[in-house]
Amino acid sequence: MQRSLKLICSLILLGAVQPLWALNGPQQLEAFLKDLTTLQADFEQTLQQDDDQAYSSNGVFYLKRPGLLRWEYTAPSEQLIVADGDRIWLYDIELEQVSHRSQRAALVGTPAQLLSDQAPISEHFQVNDLGEADGLSWVELLPREKESQFSSLRLALNENNLQRMEMIDNLGQTTRFVFDNLQRNLPLDAALFTFKPPPMIDLIGDL
């Protein structure tokens, strides 16, 4: 009888503390973004097009909140994307071409807006819990802004860390990211988030 009582008490206590660690997807996303100041990660990006062809690239990603981003693509071709808080710069090294546009307009409804903006998630996105799959907790974000280029963003988290990201654009194409070596709140050099177009390079204004 005493042993049974202890077992029942243990189960009650286990049930009481379970919510502290068994967080669902939206809760893990909130925990991931809480107190986030910087982020660095390797990534593999895959674009799945309507003809079922997939195009892959990889590189390294840097973030400093609020509003600073840097994507370095190393393969199959070198490209650099820098968001300096005012404008987004795209430098295609192979084509020797630089394009730029307003950061505020370019980031509407994108994962970059979610990661770099310190506003509550619900201000820009409707948040849906998609449950678990492949050992990961999935969240769907539906952009509230009509100008968004994406119809749906899906994030996969594990132990409050971002593992994967899927973006479905308004043309039905899916872009997938897998993150590795993710490091948060490390000191990052401010020079990472500045860009000066090289001389003798084609410069294209707002896209």
Structural features, described:
This protein has 207 residues and is of the alpha+beta class. The protein has a single domain, classed as Lipoprotein localisation LolA/LolB/LppX (outer membrane lipoprotein receptor (LolB), chain A, Clam). The chain contains five helices and twelve strands. It has helices at residues 2-21, 25-33, 103-106, 111-116, 121-124, and strands at 38-48, 54-64, 68-75, 79-83, 87-92, 97-102, 125-133, 136-143, 150-158, 161-169, 174-184, 202-204. It has a twelve-stranded mixed beta sheet with strand order 7-8-9-10-11-1-2-3-4-5-6-12. The longest helix has 20 residues, at 2-21. The radius of gyration is 20 Å and the shape is globular. The termini are far apart. Mean pLDDT is 85; it is low at 1-20.
What distance lies between the first and last C-alpha atoms, to the nearest angstrom? 75 Å
Mean pLDDT: 85
**How much helical structure, as a percent, in the residues?**
10-25%
Q: Could you give me the name of the CATH homologous superfamily? A: Lipoprotein localisation LolA/LolB/LppX
Unreliable parts: 1-20
The largest sheet is: 12 strands, mixed
Subcellular location: Periplasm
InterPro entries: LolA/LolB/LppX, OM_lipoprot_carrier_LolA-like, OM_lipoprot_carrier_LolA_Pbac
Signal peptide: 1-22
Keywords: Chaperone, Lipoprotein, Periplasm, Protein transport, Signal, Transport
